[in-house]
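Lab notebook, bench 4. Still working through the backlog of constructs that have no structural model yet. Next entry is a single chain of 345 residues. Request: give me the structure tokens for it.
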Amino acid sequence: PEISLDVPALKIGSTRFYYQTDTSASNLYNRRAGLSDYEAIRFDSFNQFSYVGKLFNWLYFTPYVGARETWYSEDVNGETLNRAIFYSGISLNTTFWRIFDLETDFLGMEISGLRHLITPGISHNYRYKDPGLEQDKILDFDSIDEITGYNAVTFSLENKLQTKRKFGDETEKFDLADMIMSISYFPGTNKISDLEADLELRPYSWLTCRFDTSYSLDDETVETFNVDLIADGGDKWRFGLGNRYLRNEDNELTAQARYKLSPKWNVRGYQCWGYQGGDVMSTRLVEQEYGIERDLHCWTAELVWNRKDADTIWFVIRLKAFPQIEVKGRATYNEPEIGEHGSGY
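Model written out:
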């Protein structure tokens, strides 16, 4: 079982400072076919402070500092272990724009004026982990246990197209297209990351097309390419289809749906199928997840069941006034199925 509190980037009073935390307590047990079992109690807490500022009336900057502290009741030697990781960084960006006098209803897209925004940015992110703490002493349960040191300078360029549309009696800005390209340099190693690109198209308020890819400059090959098509029926329903491509790995098809049964009840489902190369007929079920949510006036409660490598059930409580804050309880209760794998979502 596991319980966690996730509070992402809340503004502190009327200041420009923000605080976020992700704290969890877990009783973890790992059973592996043909290998030794292991277990531990883990307390993990990530806390971060950030500041959003502006210089010369055109340059935005966001520095941050943070720390993650993790305590294990046992390591590989059966002894207690404490791990501390420190985070720091800063991002700088500015925006240029130009307005085009364009009025058209081509294909029902309702374009009333067009604004092109260009946002170049640079950021430095640093993560310090005590080099004296050997990673192989930490029992491996999930991604929290695998965190290592990190030092990178990232360059990004965003292009966005906006128009104005009427929603009810109000006229609001609407993003028609948004593309971000980025690449990172790792000081001390003289290495660079893959070139990454994300594109989101919204020709209509109810339809979104998303594409993301990464390209290896060393191998001159596409490493990943993902496509998602999402139809949104407002509060009533939502449906999405996607395809995941990862070089030298199986492809994946995904489908997810959400439907409002009544003013108080919502249901949702997600499934993922894997297939080899272009042979869609060879699909096999990799992951499935289903949830039911109840509106309880001041807060909502959701019960979720997931099957991937194991069956997992969790319970989520959200305050309606602060939906980004979640309190979760989770339990994984059976051993993994042999041969089943997938990247998840």
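Notes after review: Residues 333-345 have pLDDT under 50 and may be disordered. The first strand starts at residue 2 and ends at 11. Flag for follow-up if needed.
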